[in-house]
Amino acid sequence: MSSWKEGQINLQSDTQTRPTPRMREVIAAADVGDEQYGHDPSVNQLCQETAELLGKEAAVFLPSGTMCNEIALLVHCRPGDEIYAHRTAHILISEAGGPAALAGVQVYPIDGPRGQYSAEALQAGIQPQSRYTPTARLVLVEQTSNGGGGTVWPLELVRQVADTAREKGLHLHMDGARLMNAVVASGTSAEEFSAPFDSVWLDFTKGLGCPIGAVLAGSADFIHEAWKWKQRIGGAMRQAGMMAAACSYALRHHVDRLAEDHENARRFAAIVSQCDGLQLDPEPVETNLVFLDIAGTGLAAGEVRARLEAESINISEPAPTRLRVCTHLDVSREQVETAAHAFVNIVNDLR
Ligand SMILES: *Cc1c(COP(=O)(O)O)cnc(C)c1O
Questions:
Q1: Which of 93, 142, 248, 320 has the most CB atoms around its CB within 10 Å?
Q2: In what order do the strands lie in the sheet with 289-293?
Q3: Domain spans of the chain, in order of start
Q4: The domain 31-253: what is its CATH number?
Q5: 140-163 pLDDT, tens per residue?
Q6: Ligand 1 pocket residue status of 211, Cβ below 6 Å
Q7: Does the beta carbon of 95 sit less than 6 angstroms from any atom of ligand 1?
Q8: Could you tell me which CATH class the domain 9-16+257-350 is placed in?
């Protein structure tokens, strides 16, 4: 189950983190005002800091990453347009059909290994434009790729894909839910990764450990239009500085430590890879997500997950033979090792 109990090891998602005691103090002490009027100093500060971090003119605070994606499409696109994203992209599989329901766009899925696609694959997906075709409008890159296994799009690949998009006159949008994991893992700065994109956002509720919030950045004109959508769909808030202060705190204190999560994910992978028939997919583990293909063990992912749950260890089960383990600031090295050994024992026992 998802609520925390004493001694529970929750590796289900990095969204499971609870605010740390220090973060709770920052939340309680936050300077606030009416966000909708532009009067909340903590929100304004967070937007400025994030815009600078991403090398963009302006930014807007939103309740979730999903709203960042959907508002970006509403600003960039018109109904009947086509956008391009990897087949595993969050926007395609986990936003309840939002692109179709809200912006009225269709998502053309591009294939490629590790949740990434090449400039050639993108090029091949974009039809020569005519009266018959949907209007090609936007290319989306998810950094890191969640469904691809927490993989980092290398800067060179991002640039090649962006060049192809520009040649075709398309907009570029980055889903940066875990951009800071990519930054810490690769040493490439957030600004460099973001440079080719018209819009980019960061989620504060994943590895950064905040309770609420994401920030969408772009040009001043883009953010002006994004604000209209925020207002229109009821995303404008009031004393949201309590949440924004936690996000600013996380930018200062929870970014560098993502390296520990990556190290813990690799540690988990190293221990469980002793099991016969178990495949890390993908391998190697690059950030904080570990995907395990257990088809070769003859076991069902559900059985293994349920047995772990009985020992107060939570992981997720994205497919019948696939399991996902996600490390974050609320699980220690020791707990990760405990969970990995329990995993090995359960698999050996069930066989
Ligand atoms: C979690 C996630 C989102 C959505 O973010 P929320 O804040 O949960 O709405 C979007 N894209 C990716 C890649 C994600 O992992």
A1: 142
A2: 279-280, 289-293, 322-326, 316-319
A3: 9-16+257-350, 31-253
A4: 3.40.640.10
A5: 999 999 999 999 999 999 999 999
A6: no
A7: no
A8: alpha beta
